[in-house]
Amino acid sequence: MNQSDIQLRADRFSDRKVGHPNLPAALINLGTIIGDSVMEQTPDQLHKAAVNKKWRMANQDRIKKEHRAYYLANREKCCNRSKVYCAKHREERRRYAKLYRATHQQYLKDYRLKNKEEVSRYRVAYERKRNYGMSQKQFDIMLKKQSGACAICKKPETAQYRGKPRRLSVDHDHSTKKIRGLLCSRCNLGIGLFMHNKDLLEKAILYL
Questions:
Q1: Does residue 19 lie within any of the structural domains?
Q2: How many Å apart are CA 141 and CA 61, to the nearest integer?
Q3: Do the beta carbons of residue 16 and residue 110 sit within 8 Å?
Q4: Which of 14, 35, 101, 164 lies in the 20 to 30 Å Cα band around 171?
């Protein structure tokens, strides 16, 4: 990557008010990250890009409605195309995400502070999907099926985190990885202490 490529990348970011104190220097330091992803553009291409950007900014609502309508009419096609693209460009997307985080630190920090609840819900949903393969939609369906209560004690969650009720925990079979249900903190901790062993639980019942 030469100096003109780096400066071009910096110019493309310069009109975004993200609070970065030294954007060109940051891009120079990250030159090895973006690598060949920077494309050279002629003055005509840059002018055309500026005109297109101006039009998009003036027609944001229209664009969102058209995109949403197309997605709803072609949901499966869009999802499959997205999966193929993400798998093909995984490393490129990771490099760009790393670059974006490095050059938008203040913007991301401000967004997290202004949208704490939204960010928290996203992180919980992401971890649930990563750990158990359970989407937010599947969680909501199971929660509704259990009437918002624990699958064992049939009571809502009472434990709190930072002054707010905790979400029900996902309980799964550690051998088969199959999800069994949603449990409150006490019940989830209880069967965990009994090592998910039915014989031990039966002995505890007889003891009581």
A1: no
A2: 31
A3: no
A4: 164
Is 196 a residue whose pLDDT tops 70?
yes
CATH of the domain at 168: 3.40.1800.10
Q: How many CA atoms lie within 13 A of 90 on its CB side?
A: 4
Taking all residues of the chain, what is their mean pLDDT, rounded to a whole number?
A: 84
Q: How many domains is the chain partitioned into structurally?
A: 2
Q: How many CB atoms lie within 10 A of CB 83?
A: 10
Share of the chain above pLDDT 90, in %: 68
Three-state SS at 181: strand
Tell me, yes or no, whether 172 and 108 share the same domain.
no
122 plus 157 within the same structural domain:
no
pTM for the predicted model, two decimal places? 0.59
